[in-house]
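The material for today's practical consists of a large collection of protein records. Read left to right, the backbone structure tokens trace the chain's path through space. An example says more than a description, so a record of this kind follows:
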Amino acid sequence: MLENASSRADLDAQMEEFNRRLTEQRERLNMTNCEERQHLLKEMEALREELRRRQGNEAIVREEMRTENDTKVRRVETEYDLRLTRNDEVHKAQFETMRLLHEEQVERLRRDVRERDERMEAAQNLTNERVEALFGSLVGNSAKRGDVGENLVKSVHDVLELGELTKTNKIKAVGYADHDWDYNLQQGDLPPIRGLIEVKFSHDANAKRDVNKFRADVKDAAASQRSNMAMYISLVERLAGKAHVCVEVMHGIPVLWASRGTDDAIPAATLVEFAFKVFAHLWPFLTSSGESAASSTLQTLSKLLTTHLAQYDKMDTNLRALDKAGESIRLQTNQLRSIRDCLVAGIQEFQIRHPNSVHVHIDDKMPVTSLLDTDVGQSVLTAVRAHYDAKKRTPSLVKELDLDPEVNDIVSSNPDLFALAKKRVKEENKTSGYEARSMRKKAKKNPE
């Protein structure tokens, strides 16, 4: 029994020791776990702090990036605005330059138009003056007036070099007019132009008698195949119901009607030149097309010519206004010109009739101009000097001189001019002979 009690006491003591050790171990474990937990909590807090710091840094970075991007955007916008402003200034400068150039070109064109209008006005005035002068000198003589018109057409045609223009106004048979126009374009098989040309230089161009005669001449010339085109030109009167230039087919051949009035802007020479050039350029197409196509083409061309020539009619208003504004100036100019022409004619007549007085001086400052100092006088002097040098004598007759026909006619009608030229040459040779003899005498006295 005692042994059992002793064993139990030992077991209880061991149990207590074991429990004590277990409790101590638990306490140590608890203390260890608490320290680890505290450590873990500290680590977690440190991680949270690091996370918050990083989040703050990211926010700062994002803000910096946003600020930097905003700055870049503003800089780009500023540069873009500046570039737009510069481009706008460049474009404005270019536009201003183009505008100035355009204004300069417009002003130059206006100046050219004004100069052209002035030239046309001067040419028109000159033409009108010549026409009026011719009409004034040829009143009552239709044959001479017709010759003037025909010669004008002939002179204009000769300058154009468009074939040959032959006068046929002396042929009174049907089928003939004032001129025959022959022009070979020398283009393959293209037939030559054989034209019937009628010229009117009178105020009865619309007379039925003249128009009907022209139509009869065209009909006969076309039927006999003597002509393959015709032209009716009126230089001083517009044809009733027709434009300045119009073209139609008559009896199977093209016929051109060209007319102008004395008050029209287009000069007579320009009308004639335009008429011949139109046919010369139109002829290849007319011969290569059928009659219906040619008729249609002529109608279209007639409308086109009417449209273009209508511009001359529009210029009439401006020309008339300028004419009216300068009427008094032209009147005064013409009066002064007439006075000057009368004075010059009187002086020349006096010099021709009284050759011995040509060297008389009115005063010391204003010598009377010699007729021999004119172009005709110099030509006569040159011819007389050449005759004297060749034959050692002055000529007895005008026909002995080598003169142009025009100068010869003037000298023949003014014998005093010929006598004055001979006198001048004799005086020149007398003086030169005296000087030559003086030189020979001096040479004999002073042989060295």
In short: Strands lie at 164-167, 179-183, 193-200, 229-234, 245-250, 253-259. Residues 355-369 have pLDDT under 50 and may be disordered. The longest helix spans residues 2-137. The radius of gyration is 57 Å.
